[in-house]
Amino acid sequence: MHRTKGEAILLRTRPLGEADRLVTLLHPGRGLVRLVAKSARRSKKRFLGSLESFTRLEVEFLEFPTGELGRLESAAVIAAFPRLRRELAALAQAAYACELAELVGRAGEPNAPLFEWLALFLHTVDARGPRADHLRVYELGLLDRSGFGPPLCACAACGKALDLGARPAFDTARGGALCPECSGPASRSVSLGTLRTLEASRDAGSQLSPRVGFSRQAISESRRLLGDFLDYHLERRPRSKEFLEQVCPEVC
Ligand SMILES: [Zn+2]
């Protein structure tokens, strides 16, 4: 039996039987954790209303070596992110961000940078409202924190720097940006400005606000480019993406 205490983000929750809930947490040291919250449905007092999705919690849980489902012992809210409960676009972005983290997270594998990145995104959406540029920076940072981040300012095939004047391309299957000489029929053209805007947001490290503002072209090109890249690397397309695109096309 392994007991863990500390912060976590509640990614997902659903009813389990008549009395319990099944919860999925992202924990910096344990990665993705699926747990039973006993009597969470029967007794309102048991978890004091803390088991809402997309909430930052202080938790204590038990995991068992036999493969039996672990048990959530306690949960207290650190940040409830109230804007997500009153603005549909903020909720849709949070749902998408949490599903992406669930798709790249691994059970039992520590990934504190992924946890911190998702926490930063939720705090930013809550404080500043949903924005398309923040979502692009989040997607790129998530790829970087899971080891898939594409090269953007040098050719993924030959390593040459992408210079002004040359029309670069982006090729998901070949791993990132390509110079004109290396690009092929499956590569899609992209402006150097978009690649540089994305690279600058990556340089900002633990900040979500891009240092270089995204132009309209950078927003639309990077949405397509990062969307294709995520679709290629994830085991499935996030279900919440369709919802985000339908209800809030301006911030998807
Ligand atoms: Zn090249």
What does this structure look like?
- This protein has helices at residues 44-47, 82-86, 88-104, 112-128, 132-145, 192-203, 216-233, 239-247; strands spanning 2-16, 20-27, 31-37, 55-63, 70-79, 169-171, 176-178, 188-189.
- The chain is α+β, with helices and mostly antiparallel strands and 252 residues long.
- The protein folds into two domains: 2-80, Nucleic acid-binding proteins (OB fold (Dihydrolipoamide Acetyltransferase, E2P), Beta Barrel), CATH 2.40.50; 83-251, Up-down Bundle (de novo design (two linked rop proteins)), CATH 1.20.1440.
- A hairpin with a 3-residue loop joins strand 1 and strand 2 (20-27).
- The longest helix has 18 residues, at 216-233.
- The model has no long low-confidence stretch (mean pLDDT 93).
- The structure holds zinc ion.
* Head-to-tail CA distance between termini: 42 Å
Beta-strand residue percentage: 15-25%
Which series of helices and strands comes N to C? EEEHEEHHHHEEEHHH
CATH superfamily of the largest domain: Recombination protein O, C-terminal domain
Q: Which helices and strands appear, and what pairs or packs with what?
A:
Elements: E1 2-16, E2 20-27, E3 31-37, H1 44-47, E4 55-63, E5 70-79, H2 82-86, H3 88-104, H4 112-128, H5 132-145, E6 169-171, E7 176-178, E8 188-189, H6 192-203, H7 216-233, H8 239-247
Parallel strand pairs: 3-5
Antiparallel strand pairs: 1-2, 1-4, 2-3, 4-5, 6-7, 6-8
Helix pairs in contact: 3-4, 3-5, 3-8, 4-5, 5-7, 6-7
The structure holds zinc ion.
Zinc ion binds next to loops.
